[in-house]
Design a protein that fits this description.
Blueprint (H helix, E strand, L loop, with lengths): L10 E4 L5 E7 L2 E8 L9 H13 L1 E6 L16 H15 L5 E6 L1 H13 L3 E7 L5 H4 L3 H10 L1 E4 L8 E4 H9 L13 E6 L8 H9 L5 E6 L9 H16 L1
Amino acid sequence: MTDDTTSAPPAFLPNAAGLRLAYRHRPGTAPTVVFLPGYMSDMMGSKALALDDWAAAQGRAMLRFDYAGCAESAGRFEDGTLASWRDDARAVIDHCVPAGPIILVGSSMGGWLALLLARDLGARVAGLVGIAAAPDFTNWGFDAAQKAILQREGKLVEPTPYGDQPYVTTRAFWASGEALRLLDGEIAIECPIRLLQGQADADVPWQIAVRIAQQVRSADVQTLLVKDGDHRLSRPQDIALLIATVARLVES
């Protein structure tokens, strides 16, 4: 059952641009579980809330937040880039968990950010869970025609099955993603990594999870393929798998 603090008003932290970032930090036993939402998603999504419920029941520390321009944080969504949202995440983590181990849990684009943060934070990261992690999607996720529109018009606007608002990608976001690609070489991450990936995912090919496993330096990597799982992996059985995966990492 969700307790009162799960949906309580957020706290706020100014980012480097002075925009107020909304976050919810649940104190508890370390390591702190840090949830990184996907593109056009936020900290009130079903996976984030399910993990927060689990953390509350277990007395575990949990941190959720919204990137600038998303949900309860200030700013315009179209002003965000992969680099600026990485920096937002780092600012909230450093503010709320200045010391002690963390476990990064990233969904889709949040999985790309989790990999970038784990590389930068080094030994502070006790584990990483990717949910349909999508590193380098600016490279493999757009065809030549879409990239041409981005360059010509400055943004790409497309319908999405995941919400009422159109899916907007800016040229600045695309360029930032291209500058932060990871899959072309070794990814210097040493911590245990768990990759949850649906094989019926229409957005992230399941082979991306295998490439991540190949490219990270860590030897403690498990890729869990869900044959009938879609991109969201938010069905009850998917949520149960996520919680069980996080719980095992936390306990180890």
